[in-house]
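User: structure tokens for this one?
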Amino acid sequence: MSLPRARSVRIVKNTTGFPLLNSQGRPKEDRGKISWIPVVLRVLAIAWSGAVVVALLDEFGGASQLPFLMAMGMAGLLVAASFILTHDEMRSKKVAKVEPGEDDESASDLLTKLPTFNHFSRRLTDEFNRSRRAGRSVSVVLIDVNNLTAVNQEYGVRAGDEVLRHVAASIEATKRFNDVVARLGDDEFGVLLVESGTDGVDAFTTRLEDRLARESAVADVNGRTVALWAGVCTGNSTSTPEVTRPEAVLESAMAALNQAKQERERRRRMWLSA
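Assistant:
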């Protein structure tokens, strides 16, 4: 099973580190200011080249073509050099406007404000390689929200969105500071537990289930407030010395989640037929 990617959007940040948003809450495009230094340098270089051409033509006259060709060649070299030097300056300024590691693949999900699948995959690779060098392990926990389709049909899509926000906030509140949470699909989340084994996975899932059992999502449905209890099923995998690819950890967690979802469906059918 391959997890569908959540819709992503590029987040452009200003110098304070906060995203620039328009009135609809979507990121605005940061166009930046025009730098006049490269323009002035190029104009001066072209003017200097023109002056050299005129001086050579005046000195040697139009009969001889050699000075003219030399002047034109010098002008071309000056212009090319000015473009190369100012291009590096402009490129460095563009790079400085972008946060380190911030690109199209590390965008945030608009609904839950969590990172998307690409960011999660990249962090998994980094932490997996680091853990192998240190002789430690990492774990992946995949989380699927129960009965989200039923909530959407019964109370509307906005209520389903509130359930997803509630689950995302609960996962964020349950994880440790250095763990990574991302929205991987419509109703699926992923958690990367850094330097954590099976005991850490069990502790995390227990805390998350307890939190979701105590707290409910709140949605406004036709002018009345409705409490929506969100349940989840999980699948997890922990790296071992025999595992050499980070993708193998994710694939194993996917298989475990699929098995958990099949078991959930089997119990639901038994309950309906009882």
